[in-house]
Amino acid sequence: MLSPNWNERPAGAPIDMLVLHYTGMPTAAAALRRLCDPAAEVSAHYLVDEDGTVTALVPEEKRAWHAGASWWQGRANLNDVSIGIELVNPGHAWGYRPFPAAQMRAVAALARDILGRRPIPPSRVVAHSDIAPTRKEDPGELFDWAFLARTGVGLWPEAAGEAEPEPARAAACLARIGYPLAPQGVPFAAALAAFQRRFRPACCDGRLDPATMGRLLAVAALCEAGPAIT
């Protein structure tokens, strides 16, 4: 254990989510220092460097402090039930760049290992931006979620056409997938932009167009929980 920034999970809390982040700091060394600094009050269970090196910071059984104010599929306070992985990347503030192949392979292998030991369904492998759309945008539109899904981690619709934009139907899709919306204080456009960043990274403007509507329907169809979208 390298980071002192953790506490106990609530009694009986299931570990049934995996949350992916980027560090958003200029260097890997700076990110590691922050994740291990008691004054920062932030941590994750794992840190994956750009060369694929994986550093374990907090035992999975403990509650790391990575998600902050968050909500997904009807539950808030997601640090209680999640495992957090930080990927070294300077982020949008410091020169955001693609995630190298070695890093993607390492995070895929780490995630598969976690999923082999934990009851985490595909719809609960999420981005930090998914669970906190008004605050976060990591790991961002350059993260290769399609590659991750091909390795057996998370969701990705291989076929998604276009559909007539219908705001009410789109909101129902977002809710079924798990996104927080107006009842949780998140505007529709913010939740939609988070969805686009994850599933339609070429366009993250928060506007509902035919391509985004088509992808919403395709992703919602992959989700096990929630009512059917008609």
The outline comes out as globular
What profile does the largest beta sheet have? Answer: 5 strands, mixed
- Label the structural class: alpha/beta
Widest β-sheet, arrangement of strands: 4-3-8-2-9
String of helices and strands: EEHEEEEEEHEHHHHH
- Name the beta content range: 5-15%
CATH topology (fold) name of the largest domain: Lysozyme-like
Low-confidence parts, pLDDT < 50 over ≥5 residues? 225-230
CATH class of the largest domain: Alpha Beta
**Name of the CATH superfamily of the largest domain:** Peptidoglycan recognition protein-like
**Could you tell me how far the N terminus lies from the C terminus, measured between alpha carbons in angstroms?**
48 Å
Total of domains: 2
What is the correct CATH architecture of the largest domain? Answer: 3-Layer(aba) Sandwich
Q: Helix share of residues?
A: 25-40%
Oligomer: single chain
Total number of helical segments?
Answer: 7
EC number: 3.5.1.28
Family: Belongs to the N-acetylmuramoyl-L-alanine amidase 2 family.
GO molecular function: N-acetylmuramoyl-L-alanine amidase activity
Catalytic activity: Hydrolyzes the link between N-acetylmuramoyl residues and L-amino acid residues in certain cell-wall glycopeptides
